[in-house]
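Students often ask why inverse folding is considered easier than folding. One informal answer: many sequences map to the same fold, so there is more than one right answer. In these notes we will look at a single instance of the problem. The structure comes first.
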């Protein structure tokens, strides 16, 4: 079980995983909290935390639930309630993220049968993602009603899709089903993320647009450290964590832990641990985590505890402690196939011993 000395004990992480598991429905659905909304991206994140905590059957059930809800075009609804679609729009980052969860699950469990079972849904989702790619490499954020991609691209979602495509390529290699189109797509996407800021909508107020190109693996080495240093004072509140939005007195737990993962990927592990420690004021006695805190008002907001916030804590603890074989997924951009990566990285494989060393 992951633990961070002086920050989180193994029993505390175990309690957080148990709280996430308690939110899961009998059919495997893994929502924000019991009886509340479910979105595909956050459900995958919560399932990854279950695998880290050893609840492999529960994680597999969450992935199977998602696979069973996939539409014929490879998409998922943006939101579900009580098992039914409640927000029908389709988003590209939702379509891609099952690949990350499946690769993470395989790293933890070595269960190739589950990968094979999920593969049709993974392939369908990533094929949709590549169809949504725009000229210049960026990927549209959503499908229009006529089935074409919206020409607006979101930086955070695209950085997540960069990781998803690389995980999909790794899964394809595991199953012996090469996907050269995905390799071309992720190469173009990586170039866009690194060199074409104008390809993405301006959402620079949001901290996720600041750190996600590092977290997703598109920006590495000195460029990653420069990017994180550049907006540090705009987003980080000492002792409390990271703001969600630069001009609001509001820190959020998931963004803080994702920033920690990005810092670890940039080789700044001490700073990463400090961020996980800073957000522990959001922890509840039952192991859950409140979403955020408005420090100007000394108030938790929104008044909710979510599986994805708790999962971000578990993922950060695992990444920084090295407790599971999946701990390198977010902290070492070179632990996946090199498709789409920048040329001549500063220290390829410095954390895992070589590019692609986690591949079978």
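Output (designed amino acids):
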């Amino acid at each position: 079980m992951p633990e961070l000395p002086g920050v989180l004990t193994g029993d505390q992480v175990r309690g957080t995983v148990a709280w996430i598991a308690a939110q899961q429905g009998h059919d495997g659905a893994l929502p924000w909290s019991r009886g509340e909304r479910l979105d595909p991206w956050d459900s995958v994140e919560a399932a990854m935390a279950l695998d880290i905590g050893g609840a492999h059957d529960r994680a597999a059930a969450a992935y199977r639930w998602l696979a069973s809800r996939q539409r014929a075009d490879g998409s998922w609804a943006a939101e579900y309630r009580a098992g039914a679609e409640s927000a029908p729009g389709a988003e590209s980052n939702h379509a891609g993220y099952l690949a990350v969860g499946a690769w993470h699950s395989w790293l933890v469990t070595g269960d190739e049968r589950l990968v094979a079972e999920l593969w049709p849904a993974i392939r369908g989702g990533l094929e949709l993602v590549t169809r949504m790619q725009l000229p210049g490499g960026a990927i549209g954020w959503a499908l229009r009603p006529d089935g074409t991609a919206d020409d607006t691209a979101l930086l955070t979602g695209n950085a997540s899709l960069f990781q998803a495509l690389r995980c999909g390529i790794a899964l394809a290699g595991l199953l012996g089903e090469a996907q050269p189109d995905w390799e071309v797509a992720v190469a173009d996407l990586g170039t866009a993320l690194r060199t074409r800021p104008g390809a993405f909508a301006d959402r620079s107020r949001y901290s996720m647009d600041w750190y996600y190109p590092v977290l997703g693996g598109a920006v590495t080495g000195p460029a990653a450290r420069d990017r994180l240093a550049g907006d540090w004072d705009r987003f980080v509140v000492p002792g409390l964590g990271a703001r969600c939005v630069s001009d609001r007195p509001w820190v959020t737990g998931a963004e803080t832990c994702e920033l920690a993962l990005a810092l670890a990927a940039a080789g700044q592990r001490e700073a990463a641990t400090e961020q996980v420690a800073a957000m522990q004021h959001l922890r509840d006695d039952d192991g859950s985590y409140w979403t955020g805190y408005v420090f100007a008002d000394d108030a938790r907001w929104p008044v909710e505890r979510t599986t994805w916030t708790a999962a971000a804590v578990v993922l950060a603890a695992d990444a920084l402690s090295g407790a599971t074989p999946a701990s390198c997924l977010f902290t070492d951009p070179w632990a996946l196939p090199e498709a789409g990566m920048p040329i001549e990285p500063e220290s390829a494989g410095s954390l895992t011993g070589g590019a692609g060393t986690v591949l079978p």
